[in-house]
Amino acid sequence: MGTALAVAPKKEWYNSISQRNSRRNFKEQALDESAVEKLVGLCQDFKFPEARAELVLRSSSDIYKGAMGSYGKIKGAPAYMAFIANTSFPHHLERLGYLGEGLILEATNLGLSTCWVGGFFRPETVANALSIGPNERVMAVTPVGYTKKNYSLEERLMSGMAKSKKRLPIAELVSGLPQDEWPRWVKLAVEAARLAPSAVNRQPWRFHIGNQQIIVMLDSIVETYNIPKRLDCGIAMLHIELGALACGVRGDWQFLNEEGVAVFTAEK
């Protein structure tokens, strides 16, 4: 992605895509020391000049507001991760979604539960718990902790409202090469991107399939829900890369402008 990462995306994160679910009710149980060490280490290594994350080992109950604070309230999480963008850089939103999803998938690998929160939280409260630079802004958070195996009634209701299990069919998301001409890595990459989380499951991405390339585009430049669509697209970008890695294919990203987001080109 232009700037090299100290730690590349992990191939095992691909399996976590299907295992990850948004959870809101947590056990009041401290994180295992080993999990803390691994998440802190990843926060230090998996970052960009444009975006980074910090793990905060304290209750997140005071950082939520609005509907999230009453109906579907996040309860009991002993920690949270804050996702911080340096707004002086271009493409900071895409970078933030990409790295934030990597940390969330790593938490899933560690047996922890999470929930992307891009709205209904108090960024100024989070910023007070961190060391924030002059051009930095807290764009999103996730609670981190352990959950019961079964979903609570609130969680089931919220999941139904958000239609989190419903995804647009691939045919409505793609253009370019016909599906019967796609190599296997493109099929896995597009399906992985289709399963990416987004604000209220709006799925703001579209994909154009070229020769050994996947171009990520916005469905529209009109923003909704006060959460940038490009952050959601950054999440989908990581999923594309993980789908390719699952087939042993590596590649590189180049950013685009306007309705274009980025293009992933497989290495030859």
Automatic annotation (TrEMBL):
CDD domains: Nitro_FMN_reductase. It comes from the Bacteria. Pfam families: TM1586_NiRdase. GO terms for molecular function: oxidoreductase activity. Residues 14-244 form the Putative nitroreductase TM1586 domain. PANTHER family: NAD(P)H NITROREDUCTASE RV3131-RELATED, NADPH NITROREDUCTASE. This is Nitroreductase family protein. It comes from Desulforamulus aquiferis.
